[in-house]
Amino acid sequence: MLRPTVGAIGVFGSCAAIALCAAYVTSSAAQSSKESPAPGGNAGSSNASPIYGVTIPPGYRDWKVISVGRLKTDKVNQLRVQLGNDIAIKAFKEGKLPFPDGAMIAALHWTYVPSEDNDKVLVAAFPGAESFVPGAAVNVQFMVKDSKKYASTGGWGFADFKDGKPQDKTLHEACFPCHEPAKAHDFVFAHYAPTP
Amino acid sequence: MLRPTVGAIGVFGSCAAIALCAAYVTSSAAQSSKESPAPGGNAGSSNASPIYGVTIPPGYRDWKVISVGRLKTDKVNQLRVQLGNDIAIKAFKEGKLPFPDGAMIAALHWTYVPSEDNDKVLVAAFPGAESFVPGAAVNVQFMVKDSKKYASTGGWGFADFKDGKPQDKTLHEACFPCHEPAKAHDFVFAHYAPTP
After folding, report:
1. Which of A151, B20, B171, B186 shows the smallest number of beta carbons within 10 Å?
2. Is the minimum CB–CB distance between B66 and chain A shorter than 8 Å?
């Protein structure tokens, strides 16, 4: 089983943005990734994230919805969705913390673009209405829970991919420190959106 | 199997908003719903949508993601996600139109609220960053494809629920006319978001 984790799920806009976080990672975490690849990952492969050795889990696009969001900074404007595998979703629904080993979370990020098609329909009935939809894919991030392997980073391994390729080590060094403020929620920023 | 459909999926913000659309529905559609309830629905039940007789499909919160969005008008500000059952998702992935019978689409709408938790983390590294997450659930809408039963409304039955209860007939009369501009995409506004 592949075992990825999200750099700043639900918070950060792009890999470039994440790289701006304090560049820090425990040496033990970096060390352990050199000693043994993540389950399902391949630390020696160009398809695996630096430090954590996490690869893209097949089928993640079909995982279930945790929540959605928008992030806007001077440089970033995105629509985002956070998805979970079955283990993660069960934990969210039950409010179980910490997340059990095997939990995986994906954060999918797209550019935030106006929808002309939608607005054409809306303009008559809703003057001034603005609708926004996903544009191009920006990146996808993963968090993978393995409390033993990733003990020095809260039990989570992280990965950030752009165009199917893992981003660089500097960016990945920022994943865990950025998630530390969410320690009380097992380092996960996303909360399960209510069911309408 | 329950068979619901979305009023203005991916476009309209709330039931109140939808009700502002032209109030029109073919008399044949209205008539047919009186004659026979939707499959899985119960036209005589307070749990079924007016006109179409569609009830809430169990487990829709766990359907797969079609896309996400934001809608903003003077009165509405929402984060939204569109989900599909397996039949709908397969059609989206294959680009198959029209959608086959049995396809169901859900549009989940929440209020658009700033996340103080996220912003606290972002403020140091990203001055001016703003993050937004789902607040309270607003409503959920469904589209259910049944080309025979709903022949007079593009093959789609529609439903809009707030707090688990179907909204009124006037609102549901607006569903199909609002979707007509999307006729070239089988009356569905949402497009499948690219996989990052």
Report:
1. A151
2. no
